[in-house]
Amino acid sequence: MSKVKITGEHLTLEELVRVAREGVEVVISDDAVERVKESRKIIDDIVESEKVIYGVTTGFGSLCNVHISKEDCAQLQENLIRTHSCGFGPAFDEPTTRAIMLIRANSLLKGYSGIQLLTLTTLVDMLNKGVVPMIPEKGSLGASGDLAPLSHMVLPMLGLGHAYFKGELMSGKEAMAKAGIDTIELGAKEGLALINGTTVLTAVGALAAYDAIELLKLNDIAAALSVEAHRGIIDAFDPRIHVIRAHAGQIATAANLLKLLEGSTYTTHQGEIRTQDAYSLRCAPQIHGASKDAIAFVKQKVEVEMNSVTDNPIVTLEGDVISGGNFHGEPMALAFDYLGIGAAEIANVSERRIERLINNQLSDFPSFLVKHPGLNSGFMITQYAAAALVSENKVLAHPASVDSIPSCENQEDLVSMGTIAARKARDIVENSRRVVATEILAACQAIDFRKEENRTLGKGTQAAYDAVRAKLSFIENDMDIEIYDELEKITELLKDGSILSKVEALVELNIQ
């Protein structure tokens, strides 16, 4: 498995996922090492001269006018970590925390933060040797950066706090010792360099964006299966309709559906059975496409932010140290609110197609997709559960970025709430995946009711159907199953890539 080299400039979303979820090793670029050393020398010279620089020889936030002597500069940084690590709630999972560590290391490598090389290599060693700090999810305003959660990231580096090692939670000191990594003492500015940035919100939102991209493709697969189940009209996906509106996501969706349905004898043409299909089928390119455009925008913003300097103050190449506001999460807060809205719409349209599949008044299938409704309830309550998730998503999709509470004696008078936006977007993606999984299972059940017609599924939908049926069987009656188990199995097929990989081996699916 190839390593990921970080330079501060070119980290991609796909590389982030490989490191976070697959444990790929990280190496530091030699050129970046020299930038880090040069930046650190500037900070050392400032401390020696006792020049007044925010966060180096002054206190933090509204305490920026309190001078700190050079003898206390290092203690100031440890105090910062100890007092700012006040997160709350469940810990981020290990892949998310690994993503946080990688993004922070990549940002520091750009050479504008004044960190010591040893501190940076210690963070990368932790990533490579499996020391994963315990970081509570809640407690960040998204400006000045993700102060509280990032402080929890730093604690084990100092032999403090808690961390996971080989999946076991222990003290940070013990985790570092078991991994064979020496703890460190922070020098001037280093605590601030490590925690003053948008790293946590970017990591959470980046992983959610990656999952949303996969879910967009799965939603096209679900729609194609539903089209076949209903013997839907394929004319609505004719490219001549979509090029004259010219939205990239819409055009991509129509093309995906045609590729998935290639060779299908389930699909029909307008007037053959009916003149038009309902919106959730006919307008899939327009509806899915809008989410694709939103999430493509978010991916672009994520990759900019992952390769940006987001702490304060900045050590310039010319040797100046300038206070600014790159830690402010507003650019990503808006993007992650948009991500949440785009992902919520995935579930909205999928749930409407579930209803059409199980409702005998809207289809020619038996009620709730079971052979003997009445004695059997079949898929009845799966739609209830999907509707509940869709409704929850609508609450979660309320934007976090329009909110603000002043902090730090009103010095920080407008904050982004970007970490809340990212966490909400993550939860919406998770909910939406379950809804799409339910639709795929229901569509395969519906298709099986048409088996006696001896029709052929499309090139892509056949692969999806086969992937489902390799793990889950047609549901004859309620006594054969516990529906929760069936839904868990189909959801796992979406999460582990089983369905998407089988389809994409035959059909290329795009979001733009």
UniProtKB/TrEMBL annotation:
Q: Which Pfam families match?
A: Lyase_aromatic
**Which keywords does this chain's UniProt record carry?**
Cytoplasm, Histidine metabolism, Lyase
- Top class in the EC scheme: lyase
Pathway assignment reads: Amino-acid degradation; L-histidine degradation into L-glutamate; N-formimidoyl-L-glutamate from L-histidine: step 1/3
**GO MF, one example:** histidine ammonia-lyase activity
Give the top-rank taxon of the lineage listed in the UniProt record for this protein. Bacteria
Catalytic activity from the UniProt record: L-histidine = trans-urocanate + NH4(+)
**HAMAP family this protein is in?**
His_ammonia_lyase
Similarity-based family: Belongs to the PAL/histidase family.
Name-wise, this protein is: Histidine ammonia-lyase
